């Protein structure tokens, strides 16, 4: 049986998670390298593919959910390792500023009832992957409440990420590379889901705002990520300039 590019694109996230969890484990270089390779690989395989908006969102949720899931799982493992051995140095601790250790042991790392934040991510990203697989399997006639719930989840994820960014910048004073991946995934997911809901008329906004978001989804994603990068640079500008 001959497999098409869409099938390979569907298999890549599964292979990615297997490599991250079972082969490379807590290795920040492999995590980012494989995450970038996953995005490039899926985009390349689906380039010029005739995808409807359901399939497009399905692939987006599957890929983004897989990256978020990997980051949440690895950060959970790092947290357990630090909890059992205070001298353990996390793989994502590479400098006084880029220090997962400082972030993981902070009060903000257990923001809700003492439960580690990554555990919420594991369940949330598992739901994203499930939603993506459902759309790729052909699910279409879903109640509007389903799409509202999906958008609410994406919005809450983005709001929580913004809170974590503030805490990392101005309370903890350190960055976590796995957390940063989750930030980017959360913002990207939000724009994809919002764009879909607007196109499907599940949600209506003022016409000029509606049309701008639908026409400029990828630009908004890029600007969101760029904004975080610039904030990181200006928050620790002296440190980054000292590395040059």
Average pLDDT, to the nearest integer?
93
Distinct helical segment count: 10
Could you name the CATH topology?
Answer: de novo design (two linked rop proteins)
Q: How would you describe the shape?
A: globular
Strand percentage, roughly?
A: under 5%
How much helicity do the residues have?
over 70%
Q: Unreliable stretches, pLDDT < 50, 5 or more residues?
A: none
User: How many discrete structural domains?
Assistant: 1
Instruction: Note the gap between the termini.
Output: 53 Å
Give me the count of strands: 0
User: What's the CATH class label?
Assistant: Mainly Alpha
**CATH-defined superfamily:** VKOR domain
Give me the CATH architecture, please: Up-down Bundle
Main sheet properties? none
Structural class of the secondary structure composition? mainly alpha
Instruction: State the order of secondary-structure elements, H for helix, E for strand.
Output: HHHHHHHHHH
User: What's the Cα radius of gyration?
Assistant: 19 Å
SSE order and pairing:
Elements: H1 5-24, H2 28-46, H3 53-84, H4 100-104, H5 117-136, H6 144-172, H7 177-199, H8 207-215, H9 217-235, H10 237-243
Helix pairs in contact: 1-2, 1-3, 2-3, 3-5, 3-7, 6-7, 7-9
């Amino acid at each position: 049986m001959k497999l098409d590019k869409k099938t390979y694109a569907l298999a890549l996230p599964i292979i990615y998670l297997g490599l991250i969890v079972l082969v490379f484990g807590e290795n920040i270089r492999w995590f980012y390298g494989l995450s970038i390779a996953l995005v490039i690989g899926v985009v390349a395989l689906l380039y010029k593919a005739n995808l409807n908006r359901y399939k497009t969102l399905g692939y987006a949720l599957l890929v983004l959910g897989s990256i978020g899931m990997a980051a949440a799982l690895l950060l959970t493992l790092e947290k357990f390792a630090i909890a059992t051995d205070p001298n353990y140095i996390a793989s994502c601790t590479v400098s006084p500023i880029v220090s997962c250790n400082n972030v993981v042991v902070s009060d903000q790392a257990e923001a809700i009832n003492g439960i580690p934040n990554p555990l919420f991510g594991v369940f949330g990203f598992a739901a994203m992957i499930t939603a993506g697989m459902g759309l790729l399997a052909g699910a279409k006639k879903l109640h509007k409440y389903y799409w509202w719930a999906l958008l609410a989840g994406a919005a809450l994820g983005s709001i929580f990420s913004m809170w974590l960014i503030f805490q990392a910048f101005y309370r903890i004073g350190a960055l976590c590379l796995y957390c940063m991946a989750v930030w980017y995934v959360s913002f990207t997911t939000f724009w994809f889901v919002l764009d879909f809901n607007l196109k499907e008329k599940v949600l209506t906004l003022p016409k000029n705002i509606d049309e701008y978001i639908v026409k400029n989804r990828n630009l908004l994603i890029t600007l969101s990520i760029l904004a975080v990068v610039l904030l990181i640079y200006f928050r620790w500008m002296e440190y980054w300039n000292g590395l040059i």
